[in-house]
Write a structure and sequence with these properties.
- This protein is an alpha/beta fold and about 525 residues long.
- It has two domains: about 240 residues, 3-Layer(aba) Sandwich (Aldehyde Dehydrogenase, Chain A, domain 1), CATH 3.40.605.10; about 180 residues, Aldehyde Dehydrogenase, Chain A, domain 2 (3-Layer(aba) Sandwich).
- The chain contains 16 helices and 20 strands.
- Strands 15-16-17-14-13-18-19 form a seven-stranded mixed beta sheet, with helices on both faces. Strands 10-9-8-11-12 form a five-stranded parallel beta sheet, sandwiched between helices. The protein has a three-stranded mixed beta sheet with strand order 1-5-4, with helices on one face.
- The longest helix is centred in the N-terminal third of the chain and has 22 residues.
- The protein is globular.
- The N terminus is likely disordered.
- The protein binds nicotinamide-adenine-dinucleotide (NAD).
- Nicotinamide-adenine-dinucleotide (NAD) binds next to helix 8 and helix 9.
């Protein structure tokens, strides 16, 4: 099947997957074998739309489990690093077909374990498939460079080599896509991996692992250890034999990980929080801007690192925008994401729901106007889940807590500004720098925004969410430490550049010292 046929979109609507609501005891995968945690303890994974639905139980693993996983991955690295990249690429080609075949099942289970509607979880799986397709191509490229030498009869080149065991720690909001962003380039480059998914969304990584094994990857090259961040995540980061750590999650945990890894001089990639803005200029196509703000504000229940939780609007169109935005938010259908027509799911957990409701109280106390929503939903179809109404605040000041802090819920702050220059100033006056969007018909303003907005991603006339797998993804300022996932940047992170000099002159030629210029004949 061609990639474009594979991508044929299925829009909103019910899941077509007939999956029994089974409950299963899942295991770790360490040293090529399924096994329980050494503690014997498990934790429950429940459907956030209906907590009476137990998805399964997963091991609460320990430092000993991590030690065994790293030991196995280290042993496997000794030979996996020598497998030619085109050979690894063929495994990725098989993986693409397997993921495509199971896409609906993965999406159904992802919606069941973390709540976003089925059309979004299909997108999450598709992003993993796209990342695998990119890996296939990279297996035949992995370009190095050749450059001229300053000395005659000498050849200079660079090439890329794998590094070792990569420790991967992932969040819950993109339960399959984010693990693939890390795991696929790491494996393609010839590294082995130990991954710990978020405790709330282990099943999607369990599904991914099964696909990888079915595709023929040697079992020892990938280890999955389930459990708590403070135990398993910590142990992966601190382990002396994980020279590479890739983390996506909150700024608070990112800082801890950074300080644990720094003394060991590890290579660490951090993709952290965001508080992203959409700028709406007086000349914007307002209906388009409203669609984008609904999608970016309430998609994944606002639980995306790239969610647009700040909308900065020029005063000339502010009132009209707000009216249209509220009208559109009223049309969102909130419920269990595997059901027909649902456009917004629950928050991922009780804890996240409480955080959202607390921030809504803070917004009210700080003087913002609650223009829409603001409550927990408790009707018959919501009573067993963690549902919050899509919420819009207006009259927000740029420095209010609800305008500055990452809530990670369906809460959008609208900030009115006098003009475009003030909009840019307000947009940048924040610690984060992941994504931004600008709506304007003026090409000059669009390019100025691209230049001046302090974010790793800028969208012109589109929503702040929607990164493509082959483009660099990551943030500026407090959103990370400058690395990029996606596309070619990931391959640079997961490999070591080596420089090689080949001298066939037969004499000792000393760079910078000998001035050897071939003589005229
Ligand atoms: P989190 O920081 O709570 O957890 C992320 C992962 O780290 C989980 O697997 C968790 O178990 C683990 N962890 C927790 N404590 C740890 C510790 N002390 N040592 C090692 N690992 C530890 O984040 P979350 O709630 O899962 O995800 C939401 C956050 O992730 C938001 O801030 C969001 O913006 C961010 N995020 C960022 C991106 C990005 O690419 N920039 C993408 C998605 C999510």
């Amino acid at each position: 099947m061609s990639p474009s046929a594979a991508k044929a979109p299925k829009k909103e609507g019910k899941s077509t997957y007939k999956f029994p609501h089974d409950t299963k005891k899942y295991q770790n995968f360490i040293a090529g074998k399924w096994c329980d945690s050494s503690s014997g303890e498990v934790s429950e994974n429940r459907n956030p739309a209906n907590v009476t639905d137990l998805v399964g139980t997963f091991p609460r693993s320990t430092k000993e489990d991590v030690d065994r996983a790293v030991k196995s991955a280290k042993k496997a690295f000794a030979w996996w690093r020598l497998v030619p990249p085109p050979h690894r690429a063929k495994m990725f080609y098989r993986l693409v077909d397997i993921m495509q075949k199971n896409k609906e099942m993965y999406a159904f289970q992802m919606t069941r374990e973390m709540g976003k509607p089925i059309f979004e979880t299909r997108g999450d799986v598709q992003e993993g498939i796209d990342t695998a397709l990119y890996a296939c191509g990279e297996g035949y490229r992995m370009f190095g460079k050749t450059v001229p030498s300053e000395l005659p009869s000498k050849f200079n080149m660079t090439t890329r080599f794998p590094i070792g065991v990569c420790g991967l720690v992932t969040p819950w909001n993109f339960p399959m896509a984010i693990p693939t962003w890390k795991m696929f380039p790491a494996l393609m480059c010839g590294n082995t991996v130990v991954i710990k998914p978020a405790e709330i969304t282990p099943l999607s990584v369990w599904n991914l692992l099964n696909a990888v094994l079915e595709a023929g990857f040697p079992p020892e090259v990938i280890n999955v250890v389930f459990g708590a961040g403070s135990k398993v995540g910590n142990a992966i980061v601190e382990h002396p034999d994980t020279p590479v750590v890739s983390f996506t999650g909150s700024c608070a945990v990112g800082r801890k990980i950074g300080s644990l890894a720094a003394p060991k001089l590890k290579r660490v990639s951090m993709e952290l929080g965001g508080k992203n803005c959409t700028l709406i200029c007086n000349d914007a196509n307002l209906d388009l801007a409203v669609d984008a703000c609904i999608w970016a504000g309430f998609g994944t229940t606002g639980q995306r690192c790239t969610a647009s939780s700040r909308v900065i609007v020029e005063e000339g169109v502010h009132d009209e925008f707000v009216e249209k935005f509220i009208k559109a938010a009223k049309k969102l259908k909130v419920g269990y994401g595997n059901d027909e027509g649902i456009t917004m799911g629950p928050t991922v957990s009780e804890e996240q729901m409480k955080t959202d409701l607390e921030y809504i109280e803070i917004g009210k106390k700080d003087g913002a106007t609650l223009a829409f929503g603001g409550k927990r939903l408790t009707g018959p179809e919501h009573k067993n889940g963690w549902f919050v109404q899509p919420t819009i605040f207006t009259d927000c000041k740029p420095k209010m807590r609800t305008s500055q802090e990452e809530i990670f819920g369906p809460v959008v702050s609208v900030i009115k500004v006098k003009n475009y220059d003030q909009a840019i100033e307000v947009a940048n006056d924040i610690e984060f720098g992941l994504s931004s969007a600008v709506f304007t018909q003026d090409v000059n303003k669009a390019y100025r925004a691209f230049r001046d907005l302090e974010t790793g991603l800028t969208y012109i006339n589109s929503a702040t969410i929607g990164a493509e797998a082959h483009m660099p993804f990551g943030g500026m300022k407090g959103t990370g430490n400058g690395h990029r996932e996606g596309g070619w940047g990931a391959y640079e992170f997961y490999s070591e550049t080596k420089a090689c000099y080949v001298d066939w002159s037969g004499t000792l030629q000393r760079a910078q010292i000998d001035d050897i210029v071939p003589k005229k004949k």
